[in-house]
């Protein structure tokens, strides 16, 4: 009865068409990897900040919890409801307007439901670059990117989403609207509330709009694909690239041979350079952005690659001749998660370790896993420039994926995350904690840090209605 009254109230606020309770709601109720299937009381799709605030007030009064959701592409199960059938999914996708593009101050203010690719295109049409870029950009939203503090392929040069954000508008768990939409690049007036909400995965409030930084478009952008003899060589190449390209180095991705072989197998239309090269266990994708000209960019890039060939950290390399070829090379890198999914079930780890320690970590952890699981297949790729690896374990050939996961997933996770901790790294570099890794947070975060996090949650959301179980366990 109480629920029926709340639903009626929500229909009044956002319109009956935007309170979904029937039909196939799987796009909202199951996570992107389809591993978790929840059940919501309703999916509510507000069209304005005022509607979000009214929805939150109604839910708070009814003690009903809320799961904020953007594109639902998150990889840590933070945007889907639990199985109780008692939570509201608050989907922001209807809120996708540009509020202001300020060319003088290089900022753009958009609503949280704007799809990342639309934001990139809007910036490009005005002659600017919005540099956040990730494979899910066609569906993820800027609200979700802020919620998870997403990383992607340009972090090396432009930072995570946090570094790209100047201000936020947030609806608090009490339904109040905080207008923090500042375009200020400096503002040291006390605690940084903006940074508190960024990366909080919907557990402290709902981001309804954001002011983001814009950058000048580079005059030229070049991409190279290089075969390297080892992970040590890849890290040496990273050092050379930093020294010789400086701020021009905007992307540095590593891809293991097995990861690339999955792309060759499942996406035969893509031509993967050096796929057959026996002595190249890794390939690296480098991007050089240049503010002068294509000629300048090419000369610098070719000089770097000559030095790398002399050093021996590169065995062979190709530089894309044009943008179409560059996109093809990036497409190879971005197809790895899909190729992995085509191959079957796998256990994903999104970890970060200081780049210089990654070769030792990989050697150590590969050996442990090979000892623990005969026939283990390791899919290793990621943003090496940021010390961020997607260090994934594919089910051994011929084994039942579900049985393997049931029997081995916990052991594999413990082995990998313990090794990460031993090397001073993080068990979640860019995908967040969500519900999936809330138990890992308790295990790997220091008690002092946990205590402060719980105090912040208690202060902002004493009723505990914002995404309960996400980040902090219930
Ligand atoms: P959702 O999945 O809907 O939500 C993610 C989290 O943010 C949830 O906890 C949710 O409650 C919260 N949230 C959503 N909207 C709001 C809001 N308005 N206010 C407050 N909280 C909110 N991530 C990376 O960092 N780097 C990558 O390179 C990368 N590559 C990916 C590639 C693929 C193929 C896929 C599927 C995912 C990838 N991701 C990557 C993960 C994912 O795309 C990002 O986490 C993205 O930022 C999520 O955006 P979303 O709109 O889909 O958010």
Number of helices: 17
Q: Assign an overall shape.
A: globular
- Low-confidence stretches at least 5 residues in length (pLDDT < 50)? none
Mean of residue pLDDT?
Answer: 96
Which hetero ligands occur in this complex? flavin-adenine dinucleotide
Specify the helix fraction band.
25-40%
Query: Total strand count, please?
Result: 19
CATH C-level class of the largest domain is Alpha Beta
What distance lies between the first and last C-alpha atoms, to the nearest angstrom? 26 Å
- Number of folding domains? 3
Question: Which structural class fits the helix and strand makeup?
Answer: alpha+beta
Q: What integer value in Å does the Rg equal?
A: 23 Å
- CATH topology (level 3) name of the largest domain: Alpha-Beta Plaits
CATH architectural category of the largest domain: 2-Layer Sandwich
Summarize the main sheet.
Answer: 8 strands, antiparallel
Range of strand content: 15-25%
């Amino acid at each position: 009865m109480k629920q029926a009254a709340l639903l009626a109230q929500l229909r009044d606020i956002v319109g009956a068409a935007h309170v979904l309770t029937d039909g196939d709601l799987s796009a909202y109720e199951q996570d992107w990897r389809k591993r978790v299937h929840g059940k919501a009381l309703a999916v509510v799709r507000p069209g304005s900040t005022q509607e979000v605030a009214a929805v939150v007030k109604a839910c708070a009064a009814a003690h009903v919890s809320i799961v904020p959701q953007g594109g639902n592409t998150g990889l840590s199960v933070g945007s889907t409801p639990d199985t109780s059938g008692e939570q509201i999914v608050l989907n922001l996708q209807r809120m996708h307007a540009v509020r202001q593009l300020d060319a003088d101050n290089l900022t753009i203010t958009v609503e949280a439901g704007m799809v990342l690719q639309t934001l990139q295109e809007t910036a490009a049409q005005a002659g600017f670059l919005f540099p956040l870029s990730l494979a899910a950009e066609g569906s993820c939203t800027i609200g979700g990117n802020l919620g998870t503090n997403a990383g992607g392929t340009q972090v090396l040069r432009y930072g995570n989403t946090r570094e790209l954000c100047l201000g936020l508008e947030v609806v608090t768990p009490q339904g109040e609207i905080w207008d923090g939409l500042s375009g200020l690049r400096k503002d040291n007036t006390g605690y940084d509330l903006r940074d508190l909400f960024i990366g909080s995965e919907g557990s402290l409030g709902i981001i309804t709009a954001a002011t983001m930084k814009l950058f000048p478009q580079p005059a030229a952008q070049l991409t190279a694909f290089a075969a390297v003899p080892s992970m040590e060589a890849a890290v040496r190449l990273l050092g050379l690239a930093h020294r010789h390209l400086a701020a021009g180095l905007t992307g540095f991705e590593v891809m293991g041979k097995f990861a690339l072989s999955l792309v060759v197998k499942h996406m035969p239309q893509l031509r993967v350079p050096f796929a057959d090269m026996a002595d190249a266990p890794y390939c690296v994708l480098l991007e050089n952005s240049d503010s002068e000209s294509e000629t300048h960019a090419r000369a610098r890039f070719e000089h770097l690659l000559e030095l790398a060939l002399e050093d021996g950290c590169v065995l062979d390399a190709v530089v894309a001749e044009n943008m179409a070829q560059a996109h093809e090379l990036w497409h190879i890198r971005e197809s790895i998660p899909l190729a992995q999914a085509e191959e079957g079930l796998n256990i994903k780890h999104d970890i970060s370790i200081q780049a210089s320690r990654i070769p030792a970590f990989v050697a150590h952890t590969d050996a442990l896993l090979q000892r623990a699981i005969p026939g283990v297949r390791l899919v290793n790729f990621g943003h090496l420039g940021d010390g961020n690896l997607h260090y994934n374990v594919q089910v051994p050939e011929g084994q039942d994926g579900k049985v393997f996961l049931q029997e081995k997933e916990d052991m594999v996770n413990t082995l990998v995350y313990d090794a990460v901790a031993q090397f001073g790294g993080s068990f979640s570099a860019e995908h967040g904690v969500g519900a999936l890794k809330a138990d890992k947070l308790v295990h790997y975060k220091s008690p002092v840090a946990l205590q402060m996090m719980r105090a912040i949650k208690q202060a902002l959301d004493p009723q505990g209605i914002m995404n309960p179980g996400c980040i902090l366990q219930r």
